[in-house]
Design goal:
Elements (H helix, E strand, L loop, with lengths): L2 H6 L12 H13 L9 H10 L6 E5 L2 E5 L12 E4 L3 H24 L21
Antiparallel strand pairs: 1-2, 2-3
């Protein structure tokens, strides 16, 4: 295959694709939130910040369209509902999405671990109540 064939092949690119403006804005927001340099693109620093600075130890996964946020709930076999945010939504919805996950994790933990007076000292999970949704 010649260089000209490479150029004509739509699946091969000889130059890096330009990142969309929303991508740069999202990274600038995340870097500012977690105290990183403005031009940082190292996902591991953001993953560490999300985990470390949330009470529930939330996680973040990066993908081509944005991020997915979620958390497991220690002391139960459940986790919070995951939330997908595209690059445009990150500066607007990121912190409120993490707060929603934190609230749900707190409710799930209480559902699975906190004895209730109305249930003779059993948890809501033990008496068969549905787990909390937000």
């Amino acid at each position: 295959m010649s260089i000209q064939d490479d150029y004509l092949d739509p699946d091969r690119h000889l130059w890096p694709a330009e990142e969309p403006e929303a991508y740069a804005d999202a990274w600038e927001f995340l870097n500012g939130l977690y105290g990183r340099e403005k031009d940082n693109r190292d996902e591991s620093w953001i993953k560490r910040g999300v985990y470390k600075y949330t009470d529930c130890g939330a996680w973040i996964e990066f993908n081509e369209n944005g991020v997915k946020l979620g958390s497991i709930v220690e002391g139960s076999d459940y986790g919070a509902d995951s939330i997908d945010l595209n690059w445009e939504e990150i500066p607007v919805k990121f912190t409120s999405s993490l707060q929603q996950i934190e609230e749900q994790c707190d409710l799930i933990w209480k559902w699975a671990n906190e004895p209730r007076d109305y249930a003779d000292g059993k948890t809501d999970m033990e008496i068969g109540l549905d787990w909390p949704l937000l």
